[in-house]
Amino acid sequence: MCLERITATRGDPEPFWCDLDRRGLKVCVVDVPQAPKLPLRHGVAIQGWQVHDLFDRWSEPSGLWKELTRDHGAPLLGPESYGRQTPASLLALRRQLLAATRQAGELVRGLMRRGPFDVFVMILGGLHRGGHYLWDTSQVELRGANRDEVRLLETALDEIYKAADRAVGQLIEHAPAGARVLVFSLHGMESNNGWSERLQSFAGMLSDAGNRSARATLLQSLRRRVPTGAMQRALDFLPERLGNRVLEFTSARMYDWQQTAWFVLPSDLAGFLRLNLLGREARGIVSSGEQANSVEDMLIETFSRIEDLDGRSIVATIERVNDLVAGADRFRRYLPDLLLNWHPIKASDTAGLRLNGQEIARWPAGEPFDSGRSGNHATEGWFVAFGPGLSRRTDPALHDINAIVPSVYRWLGLEPPGRFVGKPLFSLIPSL
Fold first, then answer.
1. Model pTM greater than 0.85?
2. Fewer beta carbons below 10 Å: N end or C end of the chain?
3. Torsion on CA atoms 18, 400, 97, 26, rounded to nearest 10
4. Which residues does 6 contact at the CB level (< 8 Å), separation at least 6?
5. What are the angstrom distances between the C-alpha of 176 and each of 168, 173, 330, 404, 405?
6. Which helix (H) or strand (E) holds 355?
7. pLDDT digits (tens, 9 = 90+) for 58-84
8. 362 forms bridges with which residues in the sheet?
9. Which residues of 113-146 are buried (b: 16+ CB within 10 A; e: fewer)?
10. CA 370/CA 348 separation, integer angstroms
11. Whether 1 contacts 257, CB under 8 Å
C-alpha cells in the first residue's frame, strides 16, 4: 500500500540479448531503460549513460564504464529536473541534450571498435526528455526573454532530432558492410494535455459530489498543497535509499485505507484508477465480483460526466483493464483497473471542472503544469528499416511492438524462444 521507485523491471524474464549471448552471438546493448544487470560471455552492455530515467548506472564487464569515461568524458545527460521551468532552465536543457546526443555518437565509435557485433542496440535518451520539455513553449513564461532566446527554444527539439540523426549516421558508418538497420520509436510524442497531472487533485473532491472516493488523511491533504515538482526535487536531494524510504512512508499514509474504495495511481498519459481490492491490496476492502463491478460502474458513470467550466467533457473513453489483460497475466496485479483516455482539451486552457453542475475544482486559467512538461507520450510510434533483402516500400499499417524482437531473430536466422508473444513483422522479413 505504498509507492516504490523501481530501478529495474521487477520479475521480468531475462532480456532477449542474454539468449543471443548464450547462443554465441556477440551483442552490444546501450541504455535500454530498466534493463537488469546480467552477465554476458561474448558481448558488452552499458546502462545509464544517457537514459531518461537515471536510476541505475553500470556496465558489463564492470571495467568498461571507466574505460568509456576516460575516452569520452563523464556522461553529459544529468538527472531530470522535474517541475516548472523557466526560459533559462530550458535553454540549459537544450545545451545539455545537444551535447549528450553528440557524445552518444562518439560513444558509438568507441564501442564499434570492440566489434564486429552480431547485434547492436542503442537508445538515444535525450530525445525522450527533449520531447517532454521542449515540445513547445506553452509551459514557460516568455515575458522577459529576448527574441533570440525564444527562437532557440522554438527550434530546440528540431535541433536535437538532427543531432540524433547524425549519431545514427555515425553508428551506420561504422557498422559492418551489409548490416541491416532498424530505427524506431516505441511511442511518439505529442502536446501534453495535463489531465493526468491534475487527476489526483480533483479526484479527491468527488466524495463531496456524492461518491465514495479515496478518503484523504491529513498528510494527503498537505501533499495536495505541495507542487509535484517541488516534492520530486526534495526527494532528489536525499540519498537514493533514504529518498525511497521517505516515498514509501509518506505514500502509505496518504489515505485512510479502511475507508478507501478506490484511488488514483501516478501516471502521465491515461489516467489510472485502482480499486482497493480485498485479497490483492494489503488493506483491501472491496470484494471481487459484484462489489468490484459496482464500484467500477460508479466510477465510469462519474468520470464520464465530468466537464470543464465551458461544458466540454474531458474524458473521451474509459477502459476496464480486465477487458484488455488476462487475469492470469503475471503483471495484472500491478496494473490499474480503469484507464481514463482524455479528450484533446488542455487542462491549462480551462479554469476548472464541474460534475452535475457542481464545481469540483478550480485553478487560474493558463496555469502551467507542475511537471513543466509541454510534451507527453503518444500511443503510436514509427520505424524505418533498411538493408539487404528489405523492401523500400512504405508500410502504412499499425503493428504490435512485440514484433520487433522476433523480427531481429529472423534477421539472424534464428527461432525466438516461445516466451516472446510477437510474430515477425512482414515488412521486416528479408526477401532473399
1. yes
2. C
3. 20
4. 34, 55
5. 14, 8, 40, 21, 21
6. strand 352-355
7. 999 999 999 999 999 999 998 888 899
8. 352
9. eeeebbbbbbbbbbbbbbbbbbbebbbbeeeebe
10. 11
11. yes
Instruction: Count CA within 13 A, CB hemisphere, residue 429.
Output: 7
What's CA 255's distance to the chain center, in Å?
26
The Cα-based distances of 9 to 6, 20, 26, 62, 331 in angstroms read: 7, 20, 23, 20, 11
CB distance 371 to 228 below 8 Å = yes
Q: pLDDT tens digits, residue range 193-205? A: 999 999 988 998 8
Rounded distance, CA 431 to CA 429, Å? Answer: 6
How far out from the chain centre does Cα 204 lie?
25
Identify residue 195 by its one-letter amino acid code: W
Q: CA 251, CA 88: separation in Å to the nearest integer?
A: 33
Query: What is the rounded CA–CA span in Å between residue 55 and residue 59?
Result: 14
In sequence order, the β-bridge partners of residue 281 are: 278
Nearest to 104 by CA among 123, 85, 82: 123
User: Are 306 and 345 a contacting pair, CB within 8 Å?
Assistant: no
User: Cβ of 388: how many Cβ atoms within 10 Å?
Assistant: 12
SS3 253: coil
Task: Give the up-direction half-sphere exposure of residue 49: CA atoms within 13 A in the CB hemisphere.
Answer: 31
Q: What are the grid coordinates assigned to 126, written together?
A: 535525450
Q: What length is written for the chain?
A: 432
Q: Under DSSP, is residue 394 helix (H, G, I), strand (E, B) or coil?
A: coil
DSSP string across 76-138 = -------S---HHHHHHHHHHHHHHHHHHHHHHHHHHTT---SEEEE--HHHHHHHHHSS-ST
3-state DSSP call for residue 264?
strand
Query: What one-character DSSP code corresponds to residue 257?
Result: G
Q: Which pLDDT score is estimated for 249?
A: 72
Asked whether the beta carbons of 39 and 22 are under 8 A apart, the reply is no
Alpha carbon 13 to chain centroid, angstroms: 20
Continuous segment of H or E residues that includes residue 360: strand 358-362
Average pLDDT over residues 86-113: 94
Name the burial class of residue 423, with classes exposed (0-12), middle (13-18) and buried (19+) by CB atoms within 10 angstroms of its CB: middle
